[in-house]
């Protein structure tokens, strides 16, 4: 079954190029392509595509704001960012909201289809060079501290990295929301961090988003 896709970029020529690539590849149905961030968000809410490819920087509403809405409203859309450049802080924030793919425009024509096929298969496309932009405090014993997490704490951490709220994690695990909050507090204490963004960044950099 084909995966449905929505495309949004404020450069018409690039947008048309991506549309042509997808149409020629097979395996994907394009629900809409637009140069407007506001229309993209409206169509995401209305059409619920499997994948939304969004330009990070838009004149009206950017990809990060749309991703935040997708996460908050639990729309279940896999978001891929298309960007010329993105600072480390925004990469970290995107990770905390459950971004599925990061693709630079310089390599869009080479890796666009591979990226979408990877995301469609349920795997994230997160290039190392972009992840390295995430600013983390240097800590020689971080691996040792990660090793102190229990299996349940690791499970909760991975669900946090997928963008789930404490309530959603509790439902996923058949647990109480308060129990999840206690576990998360223990995770923060053990890793000496204070936010979901930092947790997501740590797990991505240490390749711990999937079970061994």
Describe the protein in words.
The structure is a single chain. The protein has 212 residues and is of the alpha/beta class. Helices cover 52% and strands 13% of the residues. The protein has helices at residues 12-25, 37-47, 63-72, 88-96, 108-120, 128-131, 142-146, 151-161, 166-173, 177-191, 196-205; strands spanning 3-8, 28-34, 51-55, 78-83, 101-104. A 5-stranded parallel sheet has the order 2-1-3-4-5, with helices on both faces. Helix 3 (63-72) links the parallel strand 3 and strand 4 (78-83). The relative contact order is 0.11.
CATH architecture level-2 label of the largest domain: 3-Layer(aba) Sandwich
What CATH calls the topology of the largest domain is: Rossmann fold
DSSP helix count? Answer: 11
Low-confidence stretches: 135-140
Classify the helix fraction into a percent range: 40-55%
H and E order:
EHEHEHEHEHHHHHHH
How much beta, percentage-wise? 5-15%
Shape descriptor reads globular
Strand order of the largest sheet: 2-1-3-4-5
Number of strands: 5
Within CATH, the superfamily of the largest domain carries the name: Response regulator
Largest sheet: 5 strands, parallel
Taking all residues together, what is the mean pLDDT? 86
Rg (C-alpha, Å) = 18 Å
> How many domains make up the coordinates?
2
CATH top level class name of the largest domain: Alpha Beta
Structural class: alpha/beta
Compute the separation of the termini in Å.
29 Å
């Amino acid at each position: 079954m084909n995966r449905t896709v929505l495309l949004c970029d404020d450069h018409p020529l690039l947008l048309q190029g991506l549309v042509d690539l997808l149409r020629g590849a097979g395996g994907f149905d394009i629900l809409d392509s637009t140069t407007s961030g506001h229309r993209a968000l409206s169509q995401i809410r209305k059409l619920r595509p499997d994948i939304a490819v969004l330009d990070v920087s838009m004149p009206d509403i950017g990809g990060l704001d749309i991703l935040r809405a997708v996460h908050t409203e639990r729309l279940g859309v896999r978001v891929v960012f298309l960007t010329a450049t993105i600072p480390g802080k925004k990469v970290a924030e995107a990770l905390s909201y459950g971004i599925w793919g990061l693709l630079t425009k310089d390599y869009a024509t080479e890796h666009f289809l591979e990226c979408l096929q990877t995301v469609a298969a349920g795997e994230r496309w997160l290039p190392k060079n972009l992840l390295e932009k995430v600013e983390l405090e240097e800590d020689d014993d971080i691996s040792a501290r990660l090793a102190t997490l229990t299996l349940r704490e690791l499970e909760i951490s991975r669900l946090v990295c997928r963008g789930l709220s404490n309530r959603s994690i509790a439902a996923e695990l058949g647990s109480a929301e308060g129990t999840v909050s206690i576990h998360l507090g223990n995770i923060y204490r053990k890793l000496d961090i204070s936010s979901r963004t930092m947790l997501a960044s740590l797990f991505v950099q240490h390749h711990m988003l999937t079970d061994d």
